[in-house]
Amino acid sequence: MKLLPGLILGAVLASAAAPALAQPDSLAMMTGRLRDRAMSGSGAYDILESLTTEVGPRPAGSPAIARAKDWAIAKMTSLGFSNVHAEPFTIWAWFKGVETAEVTAPFPQPMVITGLGGSVATPPGGVEAEIVLFSTFDALVSAPANSLTGKIAVLTQRMGSNESATGYGTANRWRRRGASEAAKRGAVGFMLRSLATNTDRAPHSGAMNYEEGVAKIPAAALSSPDADQLERMARRGKPIRMKFTLLPTYLPEATTWNVVGEIPGRVTPDEVVLVSGHLDSWGLGTGAIDDGAGVAISLAAAHLAGERKPRRTIRMVMWGAEETDQAGEAYAKAHAADVSKIVIAGESDFGAQHVMYFQTPAGSQDLRMVQMLAEALKPLGVTYNREPSRFGGDDIGHLVPLGVPQLGMRQEGAHYFDIHHSAEDTLDKVDPAELDKATAAWTATIYALAESGVDFRKAAPAK
């Protein structure tokens, strides 16, 4: 690749006098070559196959996440990353145990549930009570005080597609808040229809939160067909009794790790382009799409982009407790003193399908490099969304208040919520060609960001 010192790539630069910047034409040419290189076989599928086969499910704080940490160190080292290390931090941890449910009257039959992450356990013999069905979360919140005393609240509201008014962003609060809202009204247990867009009898887990000062009651997700079954039973007009048992393990203190590796920049190594995926998963499937795929995409892309030795450092982070909302905060606290070196950060955490569009920080939309990247990604079907990026990933979100600009890479996810957080999240759901296509978009983007010299902090307008 031909290099010319001091060439200005756009209206905004990290330093007007920075040496060894690529010509715009050379940058575009190399970005395109790397895109095509990834499309011809990025190596992402092999990474994903290795992780899901050799480690499997990886709950944060578990023995499995310790094995995943060792796997990550070995994998990044084998790919030539430098400064490979694990950063331990202390978390609360929660692991699934016995999970059973049944209707005991008037139509006895088994049900399929899974505990919500962080739920308290039932007594060893379970909880049995009459259920009260709510067709909407708003109906639950509107229920009078003491109206659920001694009963199990069951929310059967369906989550809509991700772009709808009841998509995951909205439905997530039902799962997060439902148990506490039920407990405020006297309930002894809470269930909700899985936050899923399919009809499989495989319930989807996910984190929940207990409100301060409210009784903690056991909480579970019910498979969609079983939620439908309860609605049909209710139409018969007879009281329904259920029994369910949850016996998870809760550890108030456990250890997990963010695993980090770098490809040092050849000109300005103190400037960092951070890319990432989360290493942890729930314990039902093997965490193939959530988020083994994101780890594989970002790691393979960082490796391919790094082979060209861009001017800035590429830093790969595998987050160790995304599902329980603890990894990004730990990283932000540990790196508060040097976070100013991160010029932009992104996280791949939306499955294994191709990228639909990308977004860059406010003030950068008309920069020459950004427009060049938009052209380079067009052959992949990726469009440029000129709306400023406001979400780069759950873990990245903890760096934003510290001034780190976000990269937005939105992948296609029409069937993502059919699978995530369930036993169906396994490697057979991943199309290697789609994975390469996503990796190609990330590879081109990482290289362009690391080679360009654009200062996205200065590009953003003053607040």
What's the quick description here?
By secondary structure, the protein is an alpha/beta fold. It is 31% helix and 25% strand. α1 packs antiparallel against α11.
Tell me what you see in this structure.
The protein has 463 residues and is α/β, with parallel strands linked by helices. It has two domains: 3-92 and 253-459, Aminopeptidase (3-Layer(aba) Sandwich), CATH 3.40.630.10; 107-239, Glucose Oxidase, domain 1, CATH 3.50.30. 31% of the residues lie in helices and 25% in strands. It is built from twelve helices and 16 strands. Strands 3, 4, 5, 6, 7, 8, 9, 10, 11, 12 and 13 form an eleven-stranded mixed beta sheet that branches. A hairpin with a 3-residue loop joins strand 3 (82-105) and strand 4. Helix 1 (24-39) packs parallel to helix 9 (368-377) and helix 9 packs antiparallel against helix 11. The longest helix is centred in the last third of the chain and has 21 residues, at 432-452. The protein is elongated. The model is unreliable at 1-21 (pLDDT under 50).
CATH topology of the largest domain: Aminopeptidase
Number of strands: 16
Instruction: Using the alpha-carbon principal axes, give the shape.
Output: elongated
User: Briefly, what CATH class of the largest domain?
Assistant: Alpha Beta
By CATH's scheme, which homologous superfamily of the largest domain applies? Zn peptidases
Q: The biggest beta sheet, please?
A: 11 strands, mixed
Ranges with pLDDT <50 over ≥5 residues?
A: 1-21
How does the helix and strand content classify structurally? alpha/beta
Estimate nothing, just give the exact number of structural domains.
2
Rg measurement, Å = 24 Å
Count of helical segments?
12
Distance between the termini: 39 Å
